[in-house]
Design goal:
This protein has three domains: 3-44; 71-368, 3-Layer(aba) Sandwich (Rossmann fold); 377-650, no CATH class. It starts with a helix and ends with a helix. The chain is elongated and about 105 Å long. It has helices at residues 3-24, 27-41, 53-61, 115-123, 143-147, 165-177, 183-196, 212-224, 242-257, 271-274, 297-303, 314-322, 328-337, 356-362, 365-368, 377-394, 396-416, 427-465, 471-501, 507-534, 537-553, 569-574, 576-589, 607-613, 621-650, and strands at residues 71-81, 88-99, 104-108, 130-136, 139-140, 150-153, 230-233, 261-266, 279-284, 287-292. The protein is of the alpha/beta class and 651 residues long. Bound molecules: adenosine-5'-triphosphate. Its main location: membrane. It is a multi-pass membrane protein.
């Protein structure tokens, strides 16, 4: 027989044997056999083979036992304001339900059914527009308190891509656990979690280079570090192959079996995945169509005279019914039969589902509120600065490219204007150069921020919701962390251009030139941050340059200050570029001696005459610097409040 064919037959035999073993064995053994099969087939990375349920169990055995949290909700609705209309759209229609602790719960339904909306409403990720009652252990949810025990894992992986897996875990541990937990304990938790989730052998891999499934696992791993009791996961299996999906659900199941409440949205699970869920909550058109154990879905459908066809995946059939494939009347029948989530008869043990009063009695308030948030914001700031330093060192765009671009542009401009700094016939050319420098500083700094900040913003939304840090700590760290690179790139630019153009080698003049350049860069970054906070990348890329144009025109370039129409003169005081240009002119032309003139006539041989012609008071540079500093303070404070407002608005 052909050796390749022979090998394939052997592998198929092993696969077939393992598949039959899976049917016979219990769930855990089945998963292990399945993993073995995949491993033999070679479709799995050898290092991934180690995630067995026992590894998952071991990972959390040394963590404090979770306080069980049961979530119930009644008549929950979610409304949004329609765009360009005063009417509101109801997305969830008074749904009820009960999510007991120690269960792996799937919120299922066709696309647009409202799964993510329900997950967001129950987790507190969205609060505006949510109505109805949400209970935690029988008491009305106190969101701040509740968030201490929960974590939310978004559908898209919002990770720090420039950090290694271990660095990401260490930063998460330092932010969430602070100094209350020893380094040994933190490292032990990290090691256990990474081993359990099959990431141990990838711990020194840069996150950017991980596969989709590994990134998803890392998203989960980061949130497990402080041992949350409730996990909310928005589509944790989307984009994963069947092997990774099985693994992901197996991890989640193990986490649930240790007493956690694990709730995830899922599109259309395979029959094998579907049976792993302890509780299934099916939604369609914002209404509940089924709530109960996965094994009881078929009897439920039978009971409402909608029997699942033989050899049909019940999950698929339920989704087909929910999508309205068999008629909208069926959707209504299902929703009415389950009381829009009020009926608990299809739970595995309906009698064990506790009433709100029973829950309140079982879990007293004092026990419930024992998790305290005692990591100081100062400590978090230090950790964020550490993270910022690592990122800055590795960031090819914000650090390396920025410095290189500054050096190259300085050389290019220097070559264009070489030796013109002392030439009486090239004073106007010097003025143009100053303007070119300003434009370079503004666009380079502003556009980089506009293009990169929106991605960072989505990470902040997740990390801030999961209580990693406050907006204030993040904001201070991001402001401080950028300073060294800004100073280095600006200093290199200033030195190169100053020497090449041949401006007077006097410390005072160079210092003012550099300080003005630095302040302009800082202002441009702040404007970029402001635009990036409010807009997405497309709108920001459009708005940024457009908003810079009036500032240029009102700075006294093109139209000199004395030619500005009186009704627009106020604009020159608002334009930060005016202060920049005035600062440059002052630094480079104020009290200069007569310039050399190698041609017959040099109109601006005496720089004072030039200053008079452009109506600039060149002895004002201290005022210019104060004006620029004032603009920075205003913009930075505004940015901070806008960022806070944006976060509140997104909830
Ligand atoms: N802010 C909003 N404004 C208008 N409509 C919205 C808004 N948010 C959600 N919707 C609508 O609500 C419905 C439910 O959205 P949701 O994202 O919860 O669906 P889903 O079941 O998670 O879908 P998918 O599986 O495709 O992610 C969709 O029709 C969506 O268009």
């Amino acid at each position: 027989m052909d050796p390749i064919l022979q090998q394939e037959t052997a592998l198929n035999t092993i696969a077939a044997l393992s598949m039959s073993a899976m049917k016979a064995d219990n769930n855990h053994t089945a998963i292990n056999k399945h993993v073995q099969t995949e491993y033999i087939k070679g479709s799995v990375d050898a290092t991934d083979y180690q995630h067995s349920p026992s590894a998952i169990r071991a990972a959390f055995c040394n963590m404090p036992v979770c306080e069980p949290i049961e979530i119930s909700f009644k008549d929950v609705s979610y409304c949004v304001q329609k765009m360009f209309s005063k009417t509101r759209k109801e997305i969830l229609h008074k749904v009820s339900g009960n999510f007991p602790s120690g269960n792996l719960i799937a919120i299922m339904g066709p696309s647009g059914a409202g799964k993510s909306t329900l997950l967001n409403a129950l987790s507190g990720y969205k609060t505006r527009g949510v109505s109805g009652a949400i209970y935690v252990n029988g008491r009305i949810r106190d969101l701040n308190e509740f968030k201490k025990s929960t974590c939310y894992i978004t559908q898209d992986d919002r990770l720090q891509l420039l950090l290694t897996v271990y660095e990401n875990m260490k930063i998460a541990a330092d932010l969430k656990l602070g100094n209350n937990v020893s380094l040994i304990e933190k490292n032990s938790r990290i090691e256990n979690i990474l081993t359990a989730l099959g990431l141990y052998d990838h711990q020194f891999t840069i996150t950017e280079r991980l596969s989709g499934g590994q990134k998803k696992r890392l998203s989960v791993a980061l949130e497990l570090i402080n041992n949350p009791t409730v996990l909310w996961l928005d589509e944790p299996t989307t984009g994963l192959d069947s092997y990774s999906c099985t693994n992901m659900i197996a991890y989640l199941k193990q986490l649930a079996q240790q007493g956690r409440t694990v709730i995830c949205t899922i599109h259309q699970p395979s029959a094998k995945l579907f049976e792993k869920f302890d509780l299934v909550y099916i939604l369609a058109y914002g209404k509940c169509l089924y709530q109960g154990h996965s094994s009881k879905l078929v009897p439920f459908l039978q009971s409402v005279s909608l029997p699942c066809p033989k050899f049909h995946n019940p999950a698929d059939y339920a989704i087909e019914l929910a999508s309205g494939d068999y008629g909208m009347d069926k959707v209504k029948t299902l929703s009415n039969s389950i009381g829009n989530g009020e009926c608990l008869s299809w739970y595995e043990n309906p009698n064990r589902v506790m009433k709100l009063e029973q829950l309140r009695q079982k879990i007293p308030i004092s026990d419930e509120k024992k998790k305290s948030d005692d990591v100081s914001e100062f400590h978090k700031l230090k950790v964020l600065l550490r993270r910022g330093v690592i990122k800055t060192k590795r960031d090819q765009t914000l650090t390396h490219l920025r410095i290189i671009v500054n050096v190259l542009v300085a050389i290019l401009l220097g070559l264009l204007f070489i030796g013109s700094g002392t030439d009486g016939s090239r004073v106007l050319a010097n003025y143009n150069l100053m303007f070119a420098i300003l434009i370079h500083h503004v666009f380079a700094a502003m556009m980089l921020t506009i293009l990169t900040f929106p991605t960072e913003k989505s990470i902040i939304l997740k990390e801030n919701f999961n209580r990693w840090y406050s907006v204030k700590s993040y904001y201070i760290s991001t402001t401080l962390i950028d300073l060294p690179v800004t100073i280095i790139s600006c200093l290199l630019f200033s030195i190169i251009i100053y020497i090449m153009v041949g401006w007077p080698l006097e410390a005072d003049r160079f210092s003012v030139f550099f300080v003005v350049s630095f302040l302009i860069v800082f202002i441009a970054q702040s404007i970029g941050l402001l635009i990036g906070t409010v807009c997405n990348v497309i709108n920001g890329t459009f708005l940024g340059p457009i908003l810079a144009v009036p500032a240029m025109m009102l700075a006294g370039f093109g139209v000199t200050l004395k030619d500005l129409p009186p009704y627009l003169y106020w604009g020159s005081y608002v334009s930060y570029l005016r202060y920049g240009l005035e600062g440059y002119v002052g630094a480079l032309f104020y009290k200069r001696e007569q310039l050399k003139c190698d041609v017959m006539y040099c109109h601006y041989k005496y720089p004072e005459k030039f200053l008079k012609d452009i109506s600039m008071e060149a002895d004002q540079f201290s005022k210019d610097i104060y004006a620029l500093l004032f603009a920075i303070v205003i913009l930075r404070v505004l940015c901070y409040y806008l960022l806070k407002w944006r976060i509140v608005l997104s909830r």
